[in-house]
Amino acid sequence: MDTKAPARRLPALLGGAVILALMAAMPLLGTGYILQLATDTLTAIVLAYGWNLISGFTGYLSFGQVSFYGIGAYTTALLVIHTAVPWYLAVLVSGVVGALAGLILGPIMLRLRGILFALGMLGLARILSVVFNIWGFAGASLGLSLPSALMPVPIYYATCLLALAAFGITAFFTHSGFGLDAMSLNEDEEAAAALGVPATRVKVIAFMLSAALPAIAGGLVAWNRSYMDPSSAFNPSLDLQVVVFVLFGGIGTLWGPFLGTLILMLAGEQFGVSFPNLQLALYGVVVVATVLAFPGGLNGIANRFGWLRRPVVRAPRGEIRGAPPPAGAAPPPGALLELRDITVRFTGLTALSGVSLTLSPGETLCVIGANGAGKTTLFNTITGFVTPTAGQVVYLGQTITALPTFRRARQGLARSFQIPRLMPSLTVWENVLLASRHGRQADRAEAHTAWVLEALGLAPMWSLPASRLSPGHQRQLEFARVLGLQPTVVLLDEVMAGMTAEERETVRAVVRRLPEFGVAGTILVEHVIAAVVDLCDRMVVLDFGRIIAEGPPREVLANPDVVKAYLGEAL
User: Is residue 377 part of a domain?
Assistant: First the structure.
């Protein structure tokens, strides 16, 4: 346990207390100009936190969050003009409308990834700008004028509350299991799904929150300025500024959006006075300098001194102590896993052709074959990464051919990857906790995580980022993560590839111990045949997507067809 953690958190706590005091006293200390600048700065902080939720935590880089800002602004303006709804209720309705827009658009837009998602969001902002430019009911290009109401202090305090809410939501992301799920999507979405993370649900919720915050902010701005038009509601430069603020402060962090926005807003005010035509260019210089000099932003610099570090999610208190899980229900009688005439075709290629195999309780099955024989495609089909062109996957007597990957993992079907796909910036503890939260021990996730780490000898390094582990320990961590699900069936994809003899023996020992962890059956894909021949009860050989031999290992390895197609000579 890190005993220095409370001391490291002290500066953040003191800083937070000072910030709250200044926010509360601002109307009493500042002039009207200072109060408006503070309101604008807090609005920008809200926008930065909103962008950080979807782009910083889940990794979906957006250039169109201004869409929700504009939707919120127009919602408030139209409600205030055409109904008797008070301004504060109109602003809250704007947040609901923004969240609903995120709920509707999320499942569509989040199918895209990388630059496609960024361009899609940018295109959404441009489409909305065109629509509101020609929509007469919303004032078209002339915009809407709201009833003039000089209420700077109430609007300031409302913006303060919104900024605190944005900070609180971000704090929830950095401390909670849900936030851990979101961070895992940023690291490796496919690997997260294999650990039971419901990727679509997590992304859509994060997207809704990232839409609601700017929508409420837009509503407050519309009421504060008493005017809104398409060019200001859907201004693309606003998105650019927000991106710069977050990158400068530290993307995917709790304090980064606040620090980056506060400093650059104040500096930008001076830029605007001294160099009004170069403000955006100067922001561009800040982006380049930030990426080159300190990609972690101001928060990354503070981390080097032990300040503002993200706490380990649900970290253990004191020494790690775990207890084995209670005995689970025995699997139903019959085969654990069946593949029935599985065929997988990609464009111009048949990866698997009529493959059928069965895994029985207590059995360890080994699948071998040359590169390109279809072994990894077989695993991808079993775990839901690939949908078969024909055939059925049956698990514990239930057909799961159409079941999503994360649901298969939650039902006890776990896998490793040929090259360990850990979450490198997450700690050893968080990597295993991520699986335990969605496995069959979800109700005692922390205790199960501690037990798995202790059983595999990883407890002393629980607080280290996975990226700092040696290759052997990374392989052990992937085993630990698989066992965090408390699976019934484990699929191990070339777990001994590239290992030394000593590391290979460590892995072999873990494979032998799998029944101790409640594993009822194991399938191994391996090239190092000598390392697994004594572990397997039965061996299957794939060649160009077809099974060419099956049976006891020594018989299969002496099969002339196997020798000709794969081994080259008998073992």
Answer: yes
Q: Classify 357 as helix, strand or coil.
A: strand
Mean pLDDT over all residues of the chain? 90
Residue 216's closest CA among 261, 259, 138, 155? 155
Alpha carbon 304 to its chain's center: 24
Contact 401, 387 (CB under 8 A): yes
Closest CA to 466 of 482, 479, 478: 478
Rounded CA separation 93/222 (Å): 13
Q: What is the pLDDT of residues 445-484, one digit of tens each?
A: 999 999 999 888 899 999 999 999 988 889 889 999 999 9
Question: What does pTM read for this prediction?
Answer: 0.91
- The verdict on residue 88 lying in a domain is yes
Does 95 share its domain with 206?
yes
**By residue range, what is the domain housing residue 219?**
32-235
Residue from 139, 162, 152 nearest 227 by CA:
139
Q: How far is CA 393 from CA 129, 342, 376, in A?
A: 48, 8, 15
**Residue that is last in its domain, among 179, 213, 235:** 235
User: CA-CA-CA-CA torsion for 117, 121, 123, 125, nearest 10 degrees?
Assistant: 180
Residue 1 has a pLDDT of: 44
Rg (CA), the chain: 28
